[in-house]
Amino acid sequence: MGLIKGPIGVFDSGFGGLEILRHIVKKLPQYDYIYLGDTARTPYGSRSQEVIYNFTKQAVAFLFKQKCPLVILACNTASCEALRKIQQRYLKNHYPQRRVLGVVIPASEAAKETTKNNRVGVIGTEGTINSMAFEREIKKINPKIKVFAQACPLLVPIVESGEHNTPIAQLALQKYLQPLLAKQIDTLILGCTHYGFLEKQIKKIVGQKIKIIIEGRVVAEKLADYLQRHQDIEKSIAQNQKRKFFTTDLTDKFQKLGSYFFGEPINPQKINLE
Hints:
The protein has 274 residues and is of the alpha/beta class. It is built from 13 helices and 10 strands. Helix content is 48%, strand content 16%. It starts with 7 loop residues before the first strand and ends with a strand.
């Protein structure tokens, strides 16, 4: 019997992960992809670690049933709070041949490769910042790097309401970025899928000298490298350029914003994870 090939799965608590998928598809257009957004239960940031793990496990189980040999957790909160447990417990006991990767480690590696003065800033949701996952991963790679983190609770609502090019966005960004600039960072990680849409405004505030790490670009680069190094996984991915989109709560907002984040129209189907 020949090898059964499946798509790459991409999971997020909402539709922000479609921005990650957009970069991945641009870099690796040959593969099949399935996207799942748990919009019925978003946001994950304010929930307990146990709940985030259980929700993430349900999403991964669904994607594995769709024959995905590899799943990317495009959600920072899930990457911070659930990834390690998914890898060490769930995969080990149930799916030893499959792989689940996150977004925090690729961004942390990119920051380590970019910084010259070993002072790195991170902006993210409260859940991501409180988890201290970026600090942990960056310190693992290089203990000399100082990490300065800033929670930005207003930025996701600003992007989702389409106000990322307004004075409101500018004011919020000024407030969040000034404390990091005072720490003389030379590298800034945008630790949330939504923040890529604020890149121009952020550049205006931080200037040319500070390098900005955007997760979508970094994850796409690192995934291409990962697949080159893991030919067994690469050979198990279908290459028909098919795209499927699933959501746990089908709303006009998901279709409209999802299409905007992905960069082209999407036609999502509703599923139930529980």
